[in-house]
Amino acid sequence: MGPQSIGIALTNACNLNCVTCWSYSSLRKELPRADWRRERLDRELLGGVFDDARTMRTERVIFTGGGDPLAHPQFYDIASDAKAQGLKVTLISNLTLARDRERLVALGIDTVLANFSSGDPESYAAFHPNRSPDDFGKLLETLHAIRDAGTSLKLVFVVCALNAHILEKAIRIAEELHASVQWKRVSVTEETAALDLSAALRTALLTDLPRLQSLADTLNVPANWEVFAAELRGETLAGESVMETGCRAGHYYGRIGANGEVRFCCNANPELRVGSLHENRFAELWQGGTYTRLRAKLHGGGFVSGCEQCGKLDLNRRVWRELQTFA
Predict the structure, then answer these.
(1) 183 in the Ramachandran plot: left (φ > 0), alpha (ψ -120 to 50) or beta?
(2) Can you give the three-state secondary structure of 217-280, one letter per residue?
(3) How confident is the model at residue 152 (pLDDT cuts 50, 70, 90)?
(4) How many CB atoms lie within 10 A of CB 149?
(5) Whole-Å CA distances, 286 to 37, 64, 280, 303
(6) pLDDT per residue over 184-216, tens digit each?
(7) How far apart are CA 261 and CA 256, in angstroms?
(8) C-alpha closest to that of 25 among 189, 161, 139, 165
(9) Fewer C-beta neighbours within 10 Å, C or N terminus of the chain?
(10) What is the mean pLDDT of the chain?
(11) What are 35-74's pLDDT values in tens digits?
C-alpha cells in the first residue's frame, strides 16, 4: 500500500508577493536564489509517480509548491495525467494565473484550497502589493466558476495586522461561494515581524470571535474556530501538538519537491530526505530502507528540528483521534 496522498511541489516559481510569504514577501530584502526559483518537475517524471500511485492505491495528489502550481507551464497536462490515472486532485493556489477558466474547470479538480487573505479590493491589494484592487473581482469570478463546477472549495486566510478587521467580509464571501474557511494566525520572520498580531489585536479578535462564529454557523460556513482561538491565545489544544499525537505522516503521506527530492514530509530538515526521483521511482523509495527507518524514528518520538511546527498536524490529529476512539 502506498500513501493516502502525495504532496507535489510542481514549481518554486510564483507571480505574487504576498506580504506574509516566507519566500516572496514584498518585505524581504532579497528573493530566494535564482536556481531555486527556477526548479520545476518534469511531466514525464511525474508520469511515473502517477503510475506508481495508481498501483499502490494512493487516493490523491496535492499540487502545492514553494511557488504556485499554476506557474508551471505544463500544469494542465500534468493535472490531466493525474486524473487519467484515477487519482483525486487537490490544488493549492492563488488562482491568479487561471486565465483560461474553462480549461481549469474542465480538468475536474476535486478540491481547491484558495489563498484568500482578503475580503475586499483594498485588502486584496494591500496583501498582494503587485496586484491592483481590480484583480479582486477577477479572483471572485474564478472562484465562482470553480465552485459552480462542483469542486470542493476552501478559502485559506492568513490573519495578520493588515487584514484582521475583515474576517466578517471573508465569511460572507465564503457563504456566497459555498466554501469553508481555514483561519491561520500569521507566522512571521524577522523581515515580516510588523505583520504580527499585537496583543491588542489578538484580544479584540478573541472578543469578536463568538459573534463571527455565530454568523458563520448561521450562514453554514464551516471554519476551524477552536484551533484559531487557541492560536490567538498562544495555547495548544489537546491533540494539537505532534509531540502529543505522535507522527504517522510517513504511513499516510509522501512529499516531492520541485527539484525531484522525495522527503518524509513537508519539513525541510535535511534529516528527513528520503531520496530523489532522478535516481529511483517513487514506489522504490516508499518501500525502501530510508523511509522505513524514518517511519520508525518519527513514530517512536525521534523528532527533529521543525517538527514542533508540524505541517501535517491535521493528518496526525485525525489519526490520533481515531486511535483514541478505538482505545
Answers:
(1) beta
(2) HHCCCCECHHHHHHHHHCCCCCCCCHHHHCCCHHHHEEEECCCCEEECCCCCCHHHEEEECCCC
(3) very high
(4) 17
(5) 27, 20, 10, 20
(6) 999 998 999 999 999 999 999 999 999 999 999
(7) 6
(8) 189
(9) C
(10) 93
(11) 999 999 999 999 999 999 999 999 999 999 889 999 999 9
7, 41 Cβ separation under 8 angstroms: no
Cβ–Cβ < 8 Å for 58, 49: no
The residues near 184 (Cβ < 8 Å, ≥ 6 apart) are 156, 157, 158, 159, 228, 231
- Among 7, 39, 10, 52, which Cα is nearest to 264's? 7
What pLDDT is recorded for position 202? 96
This prediction has a pTM of 0.93
- Clarify whether residues 209 and 290 are in a common domain: no
Taking the C-alpha atoms of residue 196 and residue 213, their distance in angstroms, rounded to an integer, is: 22
Write down the residue that cell numbers 499502490 correspond to.
Answer: 56
Residues 137 and 209 in one domain: yes
Residue 312 sits in which domain range? 243-326
Q: For residue 211, with 0-12 CB atoms within 10 Å meaning exposed, 13-18 middle and 19 or more buried, which class applies? A: exposed
Cβ(187)–Cβ(144) under 8 Å? no
> C-alpha grid cell for residue 300?
517512536
CATH number at residue 25: 3.20.20.70
Backbone angles phi, psi at 16, to 5 degrees: -110, 170
